[in-house]
Design brief:
It is a single chain. With 440 residues, the chain is mainly α. The protein has two domains: 332 residues, no CATH class; 77 residues. It contains 17 helices and six strands. The C terminus is likely disordered.
Length: 440
């Protein structure tokens, strides 16, 4: 597995999203319109045997990792192309999607119906999920094993260290918990953004404000993310073999993907919107059985990806659909990692920024309850946490303190009623931060 996390980061997180769109789908000329003046046709994107695509991957790789020269990187790419080819579907032998297939085959397994990993491989797993969304691996393994995505599926992977599990089962206390970062906020953010059918509604504007401060080539990336939202519904239609796709949709859809002008894209989007609204209705109906679960957002994402990966494993995706699926995964990771706090550029300002944006895209009168439900679901699903100490920023009045404590207690009480397990009596305690700039 050496180096695989670096390649995943390069291909599915760091690669500029706007550069992967080929603006001339029907042209035979290599006209990818990269800002870097490279030339790749869309059919060559995500293909490790293609020299032009490999050249771009190496350039992006070396921006983050300078310890390998081009020749060494060529050897590594050849090595991994051979490794992933061992499991890849015949039709897609050199596609980068096989990196996820390789990890799902080699690193993880089901144990007691839960996705698990050898304890000695946890550090390697951590290196992978710090760079890409773990739900992709969960979905790929589910597709391989034909595992049903259910309400019981855990948010995180399990391990096989039985002795450690026995020790922890006696009970532990979480003594330093930040509310915004302890639930499924990144899952909520991605779900709300990617299924929003407004061209540039409030949620989108908030995300693009964040994007502007965090990424180069902002205008290009903004347009690319808007395209990804229609890609999501297009891919959803492919799961059902175009059953509810309008005959004109694909033609306008391709024009929209080729557009490099935001105003023209908006014009085409408005033409597509009636069909997108139909897709959205089918989407909500198809996944309605998850509606009342605090895990709804990541369970739906896994179910969606699992179905696409199943078609991939059966060689039922066209080259064009596979190209779009890879773009979708790149966008998913790029989006999610904006909301993760990593160790690059450490410091209090980065911590404060990361905390502040975690719920930026979310809204509605039940926002706090929605976040709190995911927090308590996460801790109750651990089954060994007996006490949580919340970090709370200073408030301006006793009334504010009372409200947040009351809201947390109410959600906790709801879980006590629903989850009848030995550790359901979860105790809460609160610490008031003395540093007023900390936002919890």
């Amino acid at each position: 597995m050496r180096q695989i996390d670096r390649f995943l980061r390069t291909i599915y997180k760091d690669f500029p999203l706007f550069e992967i769109f080929d603006y001339n789908y029907k042209s035979s000329s290599p006209s990818y319109k990269f800002a870097s003046d490279s030339s790749i046709k869309w059919r060559s994107a995500f293909d490790l045997k293609d020299n032009d695509y490999r050249h771009e991957v190496k350039k992006v790789y070396q921006r983050s990792y300078s310890d390998y020269n081009e020749d060494e990187l060529d050897n590594l790419i050849v090595e991994y192309s051979e490794k992933i080819g061992k499991y890849s579907p015949t039709k897609y032998r050199h596609n980068t999607l096989n990196l996820f297939l390789y990890i799902a085959k080699e690193l993880v397994f089901y144990q007691a119906n839960s996705l698990s990993i050898c304890f000695d491989s946890l550090l390697e797993w951590n290196g992978i999920i710090n760079k890409i969304d773990a739900n992709i691996i969960f979905a790929m393994k589910a597709a391989i094993e034909d595992h049903d995505i259910s309400f019981e599926d855990a948010h995180r992977i399990q391990h096989d260290n039985y002795r450690l599990n026995r020790l922890l089962s006696e009970g532990i206390s979480e003594n330093h918990m930040h509310l915004k970062g302890s639930g499924y906020t990144s899952e909520l953010n991605w779900y709300d953004f990617s299924t929003d059918t407004c061209f540039e509604g409030q949620k989108s504007k908030k995300f693009f404000d964040i994007l502007k401060k965090n990424i180069r080539h902002y205008e290009n990336e903004k347009l690319a993310f808007l395209k990804v939202r229609i890609i999501k519904f297009y891919l959803f239609a492919q799961i059902f073999d175009h059953r509810f796709e309008d005959s004109e949709f694909k033609k306008i859809f391709k024009k929209a993907l080729q557009s490099d002008d935001l105003d023209y894209f908006e014009f085409l989007y408005n033409k597509l919107k009636p069909q997108i609204e139909i897709f959205k209705e089918y989407w909500e109906k198809e996944f309605s059985h998850f509606n009342h679960s605090p895990r709804k957002e990541f369970l739906i994402e896994r179910s969606f990806l699992k179905r696409l990966f199943s078609k991939y494993l059966r060689c039922e995706l066209s080259d064009f659909d596979l190209y779009l699926l890879n773009i979708y995964l790149l966008a998913l990771n790029k989006f999610k990692m904006i909301f993760y706090q990593d160790n690059e550029g450490m410091g209090f300002e980065k911590f404060k920024h990361s905390e502040n944006i975690k719920e930026e895209l979310l809204g509605g009168k039940d926002l706090n309850k929605r976040i709190y439900r995911t927090v308590f679901d996460k801790y109750y699903s651990e089954k060994n946490v007996k006490q949580i100490e919340f970090r709370i920023a200073p408030k301006t009045s006793v009334k504010e303190y009372y409200k947040i404590i009351r809201d947390l207690k109410n959600v906790n009480d709801d879980f006590k009623k629903k989850i009848r397990i030995m550790l359901s009596n979860l105790d809460l305690s609160f610490t008031i931060s003395k540093i007023k700039m900390i936002l919890i």
